[in-house]
Amino acid sequence: MARDHGFHPVRIKRIVQETADARTYVLDAPFPYRAGQFLTLQACGTLRSYSMSSSPDTDDELMTTVKRVPGGLVSNWMHDHLAAGDRLSVTLPAGVFCLRDTAAPLVALCGGSGVTPILSLVKSALATTGRRVRVLSANRDADAVIFRAALDELAARHPDRFEIRHHLDTANGFVTADQVRDFAGGDRDADFYLCGPEPFMDLTERALLDHGVDAERILVERFEHSSDTPAGDEKEGTVTIVLDGARRTVPQHVGETLLESARRAGLTPPFSCESGNCATCIAQITKGEAKMRVNNALEDDEIADGWILTCQGEPVTPEVTVVYE
Ligand SMILES: Cc1cc2nc3c(=O)[nH]c(=O)nc-3n(C[C@H](O)[C@H](O)[C@H](O)COP(=O)(O)OP(=O)(O)OC[C@H]3O[C@@H](n4cnc5c(N)ncnc54)[C@H](O)[C@@H]3O)c2cc1C
Ligand code: FES
């Protein structure tokens, strides 16, 4: 049985205005979670994920911080319509952008709202480990910096092992590859956590790899959806989909996900984010194997039991059977 990936009502206890366009929602949500994880919420007829800015190791309350995206549907609706006492429908916390069991330094590079999971990780790392922690936080200007006071206060409390460097685009231009390499310095064996706008992620990841950092040591959390690759021609093999008592078999297509195969077979399987975050599309592989492009929702033991995010799963064996609950 996969763990609970359903939706649960939670009450907003209070809302904290962090900057002109970022708010923290303190939720009455007694869920266990790990630093760096996120919730997926239902709003405006769709789903969006938001990381916890709180840490389970230092905060009594669960908090998530949302920044307005210009023209964005859900972030603006939350800012404009939600008040303390309102209810939201959310999944249990999920995600794999978490602390690893290592004594290696933690180096984080974040931009804008990407600081949200980073703050959670930093608080937990400082509270529960002896690791050195360094953060480069990039923002448009001083007014846009979310959690400046919280980060500066942590630096004052842990001067021996926490460094925060604030980068402002208005003063210094966009972060460059040289600045990333300079910040990484000799810490090539650190665990690097990256979270921010897509161009920032691409630049920082490339710069770290060029600096000699092992790809295994770079953990990324992408807030924006990557564009879909169109599926290609038919290839050898079949996919069998079992849903609501119906059983259909279709030929495999190059680059096609199990969800897309199920739709091509005339079925209407559940899905929502199609980004590997919400687990609405979860099903179980009962024959063959498939590989997920992105998995931000399933734990290792669920994958070992055959569970898969069908929106991300591509067959890697000629015959695959997938069963929706
Ligand atoms: C795992 C995960 C964790 C996340 N955690 C947080 C968090 O802690 N805080 C937070 O504020 N957001 C977070 N996000 C982003 C969030 O889920 C939404 O994507 C974001 O709020 C935009 O949604 P929207 O409905 O307002 O905009 P949409 O209507 O979806 O998008 C409007 C336009 O903005 C672009 N866009 C979408 N997302 C972004 C973005 N993040 N930045 C810039 N442009 C964007 C889209 O391409 C589109 O063109 C997270 C996303 C993921 C996948
Ligand atoms: S639809 Fe959200 S993870 Fe697949």
UniProtKB/TrEMBL annotation:
The keyword Iron-sulfur applies. The keyword Metal-binding applies. Residues 237-325 form the 2Fe-2S ferredoxin-type domain. Residues 5-100 form the FAD-binding FR-type domain. Its cofactor is FAD. PROSITE patterns: 2FE2S_FER_1 (PS00197), 2FE2S_FER_2 (PS51085), FAD_FR (PS51384). It comes from the Bacteria. Keywords: 2Fe-2S, FAD, Flavoprotein, Iron, Iron-sulfur, Metal-binding, Oxidoreductase. Pfam families: FAD_binding_6 (PF00970), Fer2 (PF00111), NAD_binding_1 (PF00175). PANTHER family: 1,2-PHENYLACETYL-COA EPOXIDASE, SUBUNIT E, NADH OXIDOREDUCTASE HCR. This is Ferredoxin--NADP reductase.
